[in-house]
Amino acid sequence: MFEPLLLVAPLIFFALNVLTPGPNVLNTIGTALGSGRAAAYGCAAACAIGVLGWAAAALLGAGALFAAVPELRDGLTALGALVLIYFAYRYLRRALGRSDAVQRIDGVTPRGAFSQALLVLATNPKALTTWIALLSIFPQISVSWVSMAAFGLGCAAVAGGGHAVYATVFSTSHAARIYAKASRPVNGLVGVGFTVYAVKLLAGVLGY
Fold it and tell me: How far apart are CA 202 and CA 208, in angstroms?
């Protein structure tokens, strides 16, 4: 039986990973600053469609794999914990380093922004590792066709909606300055949270 509440935790994890500073977020913000809100909305649309593509590829493949070899779940959970530790390291390094630089992307049309953002998402290694972590840590997202469809659509809505908010807010230079100041503490909080969750996962796999 499909239980929508079981998708809340993985959607929160997905949102933290997709909407914190990274190639696509910086691309959307830079486009909003340099080419305006309409072009940045093109980035948001590309993120929604691109995430839906990643979801279909990852969830359909994982569903078949888990059905064939159920014993893989513990191993994939441990792998997911290691991926989380990697994410945590990246976020903590950003928090302790300089703020993420936001560069203006000038003269881009909405159609050009859409194509550029889709390319960034398709070649972003963070997207692949995010889906590995999701499938490893939250097996409930692949237990049925309904859960896979609901989660994929939910992720597309989160990615598209979140980037649309960035497009709206960061069409002014003042917002970009606020972002530069806030990015370090946000990265730090996400890094610490991922570390704690990774430790809990590894403890569960080891039977503690």
Answer: 9
Pull the structure tokens for residue 72. Answer: 């893989």
Every domain of the chain and the residues it spans: 6-206
Q: At what angle do helices 145-169 and 23-35 cross, to 10 degrees?
A: 40
Terminal-residue alpha carbon distance, the chain = 30
Q: How far apart are CA 43 and CA 56, in angstroms?
A: 20
Per-residue pLDDT tens over the stretch 126-184: 777 788 888 878 888 888 889 889 999 999 999 999 999 999 988 876 776 777 677 77
Q: Where are the alpha helices (DSSP H) in 123-172?
A: 125-137, 145-169
Lookup result for tokens 């497009």:
167
Q: How many whole angstroms separate alpha carbon 112 and alpha carbon 125?
A: 22
Name the pTM for this structure: 0.76
